[in-house]
Amino acid sequence: MKVKHYKDIDETVYHEKMNNGLEVIYIKKSGFNKKFVTYTAKFGSIDNDFTVDGTRYKIPDGIAHFLEHKMFEKEDGDVFNKFSQKGANANAFTSYDRTTYLFSCTENFYENLKLLMDMVEKPFFTDESVKKEIGIINEEIKMYQDNPGFRVYNQLLESLYQKHPIRIDIAGTLESISEITKETLYLCHETFYAPNNMVMVIVGDFDTEELFDFIRTHQENRNIEDLKEITHHFEVEPKAVLERISETSMNVSDTRLMLGFKYLEHGEEDKYNEAKRDIIMMFALDMVFGAQSKFYYEMINESLIDESFNFGFSAEHTYGHTLFTSRGSNSKEVVDRILDIIEEVKTTDYFTEEMLLSQKRELLGDYLSSLDSPEYIANQYTKYLLDGNNLYEIPSIVEEITLEDVKATFVEVLDPKYMSESLVVPYE
């Protein structure tokens, strides 16, 4: 077991890789009554083409999300109810690259932990239950298709990317869901829910040895010896966008705009610098378009935007994009203004040391406050760990960021040559 104490923030992390490959991280929060656990498989919606044991598989889109739904259903009933009976709140979610199961409680912790591990590790699928779930998720997909916010977002990803599976909704399509069988579910569970492809993060106040002994014993009883090596396959994504503008008519009162700038990394993967880049873009976008910026104030006064205006940057090694959202009939004017602002910032000394210092102080203040939340710690530690980084290294990353970093990253990431517009407009 590895133990590391972060003196500056007074946090201690215990990290052990079990004999079967499962990584377990315990973050001790002395005096906290609440306990929070995440149990994560490195399996998300983009993992639809892979090789294991020498055989290549192409599985239906949406199967990771489908599998997440099915894991709560067992032969003896719904596991959600069992968590509730033991005083726990349980949930799960699927993203592009992972599936996470979680619970929080203040009592019956070890009973709930065993319930979580048993639920995730022991699948139960039948032809009848799979068919029923296909119907349920089909209705979910149809419901989202009627949501203008969902439509404008997915339409943008379909325009930005030519081949990357991020183009496909996490839930899949009506056609792909119909192809899922219990056999493909068992294949995906055996492949991706193997202990060496999973991570558990626990936050709370426990006797350390008792906690790890409990998990060790449980994992040893699984008797898993054949650990599989997974090779993921992704087609090379071109830099160019697929479509410059895409538009859909819906029953909406005003136009929904989402503007996207595609960004693909160059060269070898560097996880630390990826985390640094993400923070830099958060700083840069807030300095330029945030509610305290002069450009935001000008756009509000010009009635170009309202409180619906938003922005954000998201990237992994195989994809990346910056998104702007707005509502109103003046979408063309909004796009033109955003492009003008980006050009002005790139060609002037807009960013200042004072701005950067303010961003750093605000982020670190929020970060330190969030460390009082077991939910935040467990979820964010999981995210940073699977991205190859460490939640507790954020202060040192922030410390390193310079004004030149901000200027250079802003120029590189926001390139109008790789831009798409997605519009949802009212019926005529």
From TrEMBL:
Species in which this protein is naturally found = Phocicoccus pinnipedialis
* Matches recorded under Pfam families: Peptidase_M16, Peptidase_M16_C
- A Gene Ontology biological process term: proteolysis
The record's section on InterPro entries has: Metalloenz_LuxS/M16, MPP/UQCRC_Complex, Pept_M16_N, Peptidase_M16_C
Q: Which UniProt keywords apply?
A: Hydrolase, Protease
| Gene encoding the protein | albF
Q: Which part of the chain is the Peptidase M16 N-terminal domain?
A: 60-173
The answer to keyword Protease applying to this record is: yes
- In Swiss-Prot or TrEMBL terms, this protein is called Zinc protease AlbF
An annotated Gene Ontology molecular function: metal ion binding
Upper lineage is: Bacteria, Bacillati, Bacillota, Bacilli, Bacillales
**Source superkingdom:** Bacteria
According to the entry, every stretch annotated as the Peptidase M16 C-terminal domain falls at: 180-361
Task: Please give the Gene3D superfamilies that the UniProt record associates with this protein.
Answer: Metalloenzyme, LuxS/M16 peptidase-like
